[in-house]
Amino acid sequence: MISLFKEKVIEFAIRSSAIVVISSLILIFIFIGKEAIPIFTNYSIRKEANLNKLFIPQKVENKYKYSWQPISEVPKYSILVLFLGTLKCTIIALLFAVPLSVFAAMFTSEFAPSIVREIIKPFIELLAGIPSVVLGFFALMVQATFLQSIFGYAYRLNAVNAGIALGFAVIPIVYTICEDAFSSVPRSFKDASMALGASRWQTAYKIVLPSALPGVFAACVLGFGRAIGETMIVLMSSGNAAIFSLNFTDGVRTLSATIAAELGEVIVGGAHYHVLFFIGAGLFVFTFITNLFGNIYISSLKRKLSGEI
Amino acid sequence: MKFVKFFLMLLILNLGLFSCGERRGLSQVTIKGSDTMVILGQRWAEDYMKKDKDVIVQITGGGTGTGIAALINNATDICQASRKIKKEEKDMAEKRNKRKVEEIKVAVDGIAIYVHKENKLEEISTDKLRNIYTGKIKNWKELGGENKEIIPYSRENNSGTYVYFKEHILDNKDFVDNCQTLPGTAAIINGVSKDKYSIGYGGIAYAKGVKIIKVKNSENEISYLPSVLNVTSGRYPISRYLYFYIYENPKPEVKKFIDYVLSQVGQNVCEEVGYYPLSK
Questions:
Q1: pTM
Q2: Chain B residue with minimal CA distance to A70?
Q3: Residue A87, exposed/middle/buried by CB under 10 A (0-12, 13-18, 19+)?
């Protein structure tokens, strides 16, 4: 009797934890969505910021251009500028982090003696424990000067600087997942390859990498999600200049840094406030969709590799 | 999520402090607001707490806007502000709390113009400054310097200094797109000290490792450095008052703290930190 009661209590506790987690997620999204909706519905806010103004170039001193100037006589909210900024930083971050972490993971799982592996793996994973504000500070103070002295570009703080700093935040994620994926490739695959006379590099490149591809891909998707949402690093190291240019050595302003920098000051209920929430909702939807498609692709890849299709 | 966690932690820490204070019979004065004034507020608080052992004065920054929001939500006793409160903000505060908001000038701040130490530029007019920050002057050549692009540094738009600069120097025009926009004056100083072709603006108290240049109102006038004499006499063109905002009839310990700030001793502290006392 008592044990039955205990069972019920535990079950209830577990069930309610799950409900709390899921419902708080849903509630957060409802809240953000609710604050973003006035852009479509409220007349006076629509006059200041509607979808046209958000996505189509605005007239600034007789020229049409994308411009983010929320504190202005005529506020301009071109979020495409910020989106481009986020994309530039993220691209640099992934270009920097993915090859490095995939090769590092390949080294520790395929080439390194086990003792080296035991040292390197926790060390790289420790990188994930560095608070992003510390990485941002490092990028602002040290890395920016270093990169400028190498590349000699005009702006100290730019997409390259922010992207590389972001890369440091992405590396541990990509590395850990890739490492697990490489290590879980069955021993028999490698043995068979070796027995056929392949070298270690050939085995790693032609056997292990392809069979661990879904894992590598998952790592990239997660790394992308981390890079796109990261705030503190880009706030400190990107220069926060809202310029619409494809040049990677110009300053950039990202979506997340804009929310962090401006939300403290906005008048609650004003157009600027709702635009910031619209950006937040947009970021959420964007990462959700990438993760969704990433997962669909990974599961189809998995089935393909295991010979189901 | 990280922010939420951080705030929760702060909250818990605060609760801890709060309960300590209560137990020892200490009363609290909380001050929140302008980042420009954090150093100043801290020095006042330290000095004041040495004299009056029954009061704990807590200072936090976050920007003038944050401070005013806290005043509106009644989450702080004193709001430090580096700009005047806006009419909407004042109305909202008075409507919500049914008490009048009182403005107290507590110090004067000169906004210094910084350039890199090796820069040869000695003086600049406010017109030229406007042209640099609105993007009409893009090259040091136009100011008699090297043929290099000017890298303008600016604050984020939640800063009182940003708003002041925009209103008084830029005539409310927009900042040029390619401004390197940084959170905090310290970050700007750091950037300018490392960037050979940069120019920046901010409170004078922070200026270490950069060169402060003289400013004049128009081309034909004499330019002045932001020294105590020049700023308090109003000759230096870019100076502003720093404010406390409180609700009228504050609790006695708040009143006593403000009296201290406005006293000779309090005003001397301004000068030690690098701001300017109110002229008599």
A1: 0.77
A2: B157
A3: middle
